[in-house]
Amino acid sequence: MTIKQSEQDKNGVFKAVIEDQEVGHLEYAWLGPKTLSINHTEVNPDFGGQGIGKKLVLAAIDFAREKNAKIKPLCTYAKAVIDKTPELLVILA
To answer: What ranges do the domains of the chain cover?
Structure first.
C-alpha cells in the first residue's frame, strides 16, 4: 500500500492505494498557516480492518509535523485515533 498526498489551495487529500486502486482517503483543509483540520476519513469496506484509516491519519499527522502545524480533528475517527495515543495529543490545536 502506498499513500499519496495532493493539495490545491487550502484543501488536500491523502489517498491509500493498493495496486492502482484507491482503497481509502483522508480529506483535510488548512484553517490557517499553522492549523490543519482533518475533515473526513473513509476506507472502502472491502478493505476494512486492515489499519488503512489509521495509516491515513498518521500520514496526516506526519505531514502536519513537517509543516510545524497543529491538527484540529473534525473527523470523529481521526479524533479517536489521536485520543487513544497519548503521545499524539501534543499535535492537537
So the answer is: 2-91
